[in-house]
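Forgive a beginner's question, but would it be possible to get any protein sequence you like and the C-alpha cells describing how it folds?
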Amino acid sequence: MKKLESTLVNMVGVLVCVALIMGGILAAVNHVTEGPISLQAEKTLSDGIKEVMMSDNLKVTANDTIKEMIDNKECVFIVHKASDQSGKELGAAVESTTLGFGGNLKVLVGFNPAGEILGYTLLEHAETPGLGAKADTWFQKDGKASIIGKNPATPLTVSKDGGDVDAITASTITSRAFLKAINQAYNIYMKKNADAQSGATRQVASNQ
C-alpha cells in the first residue's frame, strides 16, 4: 500500500475527515442524551413546584412566559399556575432571575392566592460556595432570616437598606439579589392575577 505523502493538501484532508467523524460522534451522543436530560429537567422542575407550593397533591394548569423590561433590561419570568386535584386554585410558582455576586441567580418561589410566600428553591446560581450559596437555606422557614409567610406587597429588603430581613453573613450583594428576585416574582404574579381577573370581568360583561 502506497504511503500517503505528507503534503499540506493531504494533512488538511485528514484533519477535515477527523473533524467530520468527531462531529458525527458528538451529534450522535447529543441525540442519545438529549431525551434523558430533558426528562430529568422536567422532573426537577416538577418536584421544585411541589416543594415551593408545599403540596404533592397539585396539578399545573398553566405555564405562562412573561417578558418585562426591568432596569432597561428584558427579564423573562415563567408563572406555573397550580390547583389541587379538585380544581381549587393554590396559587403559582414563579421562576425569576436576577444578577447575583457571581452570575445569574434563578429562584423558583411559590405564592398562595393572597400573595404570601409558601416556599422557594434555587434553580441556578454561581455564588461563592459557603457564603452566597447559603441563600438556599438562609431564608427558609427554619433559616436565620425566614421569608416564608411574608407578603412582598411591601418589597422585602435587607436590614442594611432599612428592611427587616437579615442579610447572609458577608454576602449582602447575594442577599439583595435574592430578595430582588422574590420581589420581582411577586409583582409578576400579582400583575398576572390582576390581568386574568380583569379579562374575566370583561368577558362576563360582554356576555350579559
Summary: Residues 201-206 have pLDDT under 50 and may be disordered. The helical segments are 8-53, 135-138, 172-207. The beta strands are 59-70, 73-83, 89-99, 104-111, 117-124. The first strand starts at residue 59 and ends at 70.
